[in-house]
Amino acid sequence: MHILEQKIRDKSAKLGVIGLGYVGLPLAVLASKKGYTTYGLEQVQGKVDKVNAGENFLQDEFLEKHFSKGMVNATTDPRIISEADIVLVCVPTPVDKLYQPDLTPVRNAITTITKNLNPKKQTIVVVESTINPGVCEEVVEPLFKEAGFEIGKDYELSHCPERINPGDPKWNVSNIPRVVGSFTHKGTEQTVAFYENILDAPVRPMKSLREAEATKIMENSFRDINIAFVNELAKSFTALGIDVVDVIQGASTKPFAFMPHWPSCGVGGHCIPVDPYYLIERAKKSGFDHKFLKLAREINNSMPEYTVEILQDMLNDLKLPLNGTNVAVLGLAYKANVGDKRESPSYKIIEHLKKHKAQIHTFDPFLLKESTEKSLEDILSKSQAVIIATNHSLFTELTPETLEKHSVLAIVDGKNCLPKDIFEKSSLLYRGIGR
Questions:
Q1: 323: nearest Cα among 275, 264, 269, 384
Q2: For a surface tag, which of 104, 135, 311, 322 has the fewest beta carbons within 10 Å of its beta carbon?
Q3: pLDDT-based confidence at residue 221 (cuts at 50, 70, 90)
Q4: What is the per-residue DSSP string for 354-381?
Q5: What is the CATH T-level fold of the domain 3-207, as seen in this structure?
Q6: Choice among 136, 160, 265, 271 that is catalytic
Q7: 54-68 pLDDT per residue, tens
Q8: The sheet that has 326-330: what strands, in order across it?
Q9: CATH topology of domain 211-435
Q10: 326 phi and psi, to 5 degrees?
Q11: What value does the mean pLDDT take over residues 374-400?
Q12: Among this protein's residues, is 265 annotated catalytic?
């Protein structure tokens, strides 16, 4: 058995994690919990201090249960990479305002590794960041080659696309199955052995690294397309006087060949609204035009504006202009009961409200620093209309009586999280997305 593989199996291998965010920190804590000496590399000293203090600054349930002081040795000093037998790259892969993929964080992380890599260790470098097929071959490996490192001799390069679902009480970093692809057979075996040692879930070796890269893109593009389908149906069924939620529930009674997806005011998060663009742009370079993926992105990107149009129509019925009306936007996070605002459609809704010169008030119990108001009571007392942009538990408990007490006249349920039949019986004007 190769010496590094033996170190992986007996947990004497040292782990370095670059990027201690929503992906990197839970992974680092999990590896430490399973017995590996774990280092974390971060650029921001404040985040390093919080990690070393065992502070769960991400409001992550897994961290809440398992993270404590001393589990992860965090630092801003990249020299810790020279101590690591395995390095996980967990940096973000965003898109810019024109939806062009930005690989700068990945390039910077790899460059940092090449400047500190100890070839005697034959370190395994695993890119966890979501990337399009071909990035490891066309971007990552050339950076190592330029620095004088050879795959299979000085290091191994693998890809294990991150899978994490913030706020999910069942699925977390420890129990979600993973896939692994590498440049060499030895790299695949060693990387699979590491993940099998820390996960309570299966690890599937892929035939190639490029296929591993394509897996994550396929997963999130699948969801994006299906969400776009029901969002378009929501618009169509509104015109036809049909409740799309009731139809989806009806279709869900079929026990095969149907998977329910739900319409809303927009798609947020670090994966679904971003990952399809990576495939769109990479395929374009190879001469292929992803018409389906582009259309799905166009439909889902239209939902924040459509939500504001719904409110504008409701106010017209009340003979009120959107210009000057006090509107409460409830929720800034992209997902229920988390404080993650990445790619949240709430901010697009706010942009469209600003274009119509509405008086905007915001409140999110998980993002109080970002909110204009600090309580639900405060924001409702100032507002004539409400848009629910995030289905936090606090908002799903709203009743017509509460809104009427504060003289709210209209509510747009952007997440379809309120009981339609109860609200339609009240004095309020109520509209959901597609209902």
A1: 384
A2: 104
A3: very high
A4: HHTT-EEEEE-TT-GGG-S-SSHHHHHH
A5: Rossmann fold (3.40.50)
A6: 271
A7: 999 988 889 999 999
A8: 359-363, 326-330, 385-388, 410-413, 429-432
A9: Rossmann fold (3.40.50)
A10: -80, 115
A11: 98
A12: no
